[in-house]
Amino acid sequence: MHDNPIDTSIYAAVTEAIQGEARRILSEGHVAAVVGYAAARRKGSAQPVVVTRADDAGKLIFSAACVNNLAVYLTKARKEIPKSGKIGIVVKGCDLKALVGLMGESQLKREELYLIGVPCAGVLASTIQPDTALTAGTIAPKCRECDAHLPTGCDFVPARQPVTPELEKHYSAEIARLEAMTPAERWAYWKGQFKKCIKCYACRQVCPFCFCEQCLCDRNKPQMVETTPRPAGNFAWHIVRAMHLAGRCAGCAECERVCPMDIPLNLLNRKMAKELKELYDYEAGFEVREKGPLATYDEKDDQSFIK
Amino acid sequence: MHPEKTKHAFEPKIIAFVCTWCTYAGADLAGTSRMQYPANVRVLKFPCTGRIDPVFILKAFQQGADGVLVSGCHPGDCHYIAGNFHARRRFAAFRKLLEFVGVDLGRLQFSWVSAAEGGKWVEMVTGLTERVRLMGPMQEFKELALEEQWSGAINTPELQEAYNSI
Questions:
Q1: Into which CATH architecture does domain B14-165 fall?
Q2: What is the ipTM for the molecules in this complex?
Q3: Could you give the CA distance from residue B91 to residue A306 in angstroms, rounded to a whole number?
Q4: Shortest CA gap A278–chain B (Å)
Q5: Most exposed: A14, A206, B32, B52, by fewest CB within 10 Å?
Q6: pLDDT digits over A159-203, tens only?
Q7: Helix, strand, or coil here: B109?
Q8: What is the pTM of this model?
Q9: Residue of A239, A269, A280 to mutate, testing the B interface (most B Cβ within 10 Å of its Cβ)
């Protein structure tokens, strides 16, 4: 069951299409640069790359090892990309949701971007062994419940249809398992998880939505969140993080992927997404919305919890 | 004049985050009307419920609160037009998050208390204090705060051996 291979045969054609399109837009001067994936040194591995010359377009690839959400390069690392001209970017469906969220928050402008969408059958959970075949066992948990295999609203999408078998849902099952516990059991579970945190802030660094110039958690007057990697500060950090991403998180699960201590960070994000869907019928999608669920209100909102 | 006070083994510490225009005035009314309510409550005044960041609630629990009350104007009565509507959504989400990490929501109370509702304020404070008194002290966050740790817990035989030899 877990060895069931997932068909990634379209990735070769997708790679070719991305290269062709990148070459075209770069040589015709539509964009100043294309942010995409290139093969890295180890066999089968991939790394983010910024291509600025049409000759280099051949470097671009797409494979199951292309796990990164490149949207992060358009917010925090924006200064490193030439300011003049449009930027082309290779996006999977989940990455596009993040970009759309950023557009809604006025961090990016659609007209400044040239989106190259990728029909995606899924990527690897871990790139420690980048040459592994994509199977039901090695696919990233987020891809198991992905509803965005084919991005829409892009400037260019290779005409390929990914084959997407129905897989066991990871996050939904985990959330249901935790919800069935008593509060004390849940507390013990999260205490155990947060205890591992070393406060490296990789989750913050990799998140496209964590773009504040100064994070609340770095401020010390007043200090709202203890900065040392002790249980109290860890707990506060993860709660604040989940709260600040509630209604914004697009579910790219980069936080969870980069966590060196394997804390199930996306579980908190998915739980909040689930609640906001139930409460306010909001879901991250491909449509740019000016305001997220927590930045707006309805006079008829549920207030059964308020006396 | 004062009614007989009963001695309790445990006096909970309750933090109330209130908006200055409605609930604070309501609490003031309760005071000027000489209504009695538990002295366990510490009132913190904010311009609006919309100013109350969820992190304040977290901080209150971390600093030793056993219960938290958040109270402001009724919907439609906000001095800043929509502050409490925004707060309502934020807290609806926040309490779900706290519930998910295992905080007992019995310790967290949200209410709308207007400037005319001194009686409701007394009711809220008394209700929460008595409920939290029955639940006992909030241990979880206090234990966290007291816990020192080294993130690499001693869980390998080599480390354990090295530790034992110290």
A1: 3-Layer(aba) Sandwich (3.40)
A2: 0.91
A3: 10
A4: 11
A5: B32
A6: 888 888 888 999 999 999 999 999 999 999 999 999 889 999 999
A7: strand
A8: 0.90
A9: A239
